[in-house]
Amino acid sequence: MTGKNQQNYNKNYIDYVNSFDPPTKHLKNCYHAFMVGGLICCIGQFIRYMLQYFFALEGDALAGSTSIVLIFLGCLLTGLGVYDRIGKNAGAGSIVPITGFANSVSSPAIEFKTEGYIYGMAAKMFVVAGPIIVFGVLSGVAVGLLYWLMGL
């Protein structure tokens, strides 16, 4: 096939494949992502207020407790299969907050549970989140060393 025929063939094939693909509704998807992400953040703020009011937590203890509750809720909803349905409708709105990180850690653990606790669940738990954790720790060490070298 010559170059022009190959390009024509590729274009025809792409047009054929796209004819089966429904058009993307970008505005609707952005709206759902914004609303669900905002709702998750509002739930987090509500949890923060409740922990502050009922348990008189402040500062780092309040921030840490709120994060722990949100991570627990994200893992629980993932285990119950609810978070997948939220993600299907919300898109990026469900993966941005801390609950999305909890979902990305717990989903592979649940999926590979049948392979055993060590080689399945424990090994696959950090497939998605592992690079985030590694680069986060390395970045923290690099910034700490930089501050230490600068004498700050």
At a glance:
The protein is mostly helical and 152 residues long.
Notable traits:
152 residues; mainly alpha; 7 helices; 80% helix
Detailed description of the structure:
α2 packs across α3 (59-79) and α3 (59-79) crosses α5. This protein is mainly alpha-helical and 152 residues long. The model has no long low-confidence stretch (mean pLDDT 85). The protein has 7 helices and no strands. The chain has a domain at 25-111. The chain has helices spanning 3-20, 26-55, 59-79, 82-90, 98-111, 117-124, 129-150. The protein starts with a helix and ends with a helix.
Write the layout of secondary structure elements.
Elements: H1 3-20, H2 26-55, H3 59-79, H4 82-90, H5 98-111, H6 117-124, H7 129-150
Give me the number of helical elements. 7
Q: Poorly predicted ranges (pLDDT <50, ≥5 residues)?
A: none
Order of helices and strands: HHHHHHH
Q: The biggest beta sheet, please?
A: none
Mean pLDDT: 85
- Radius of gyration, in Å, reads 22 Å
Q: Termini distance? A: 65 Å
Q: What proportion of the residues is helical, as a percent range?
A: over 70%
Principal-axis shape: extended
Strand content: under 5%
Tally of DSSP β-strands = 0
Structural class: mainly alpha
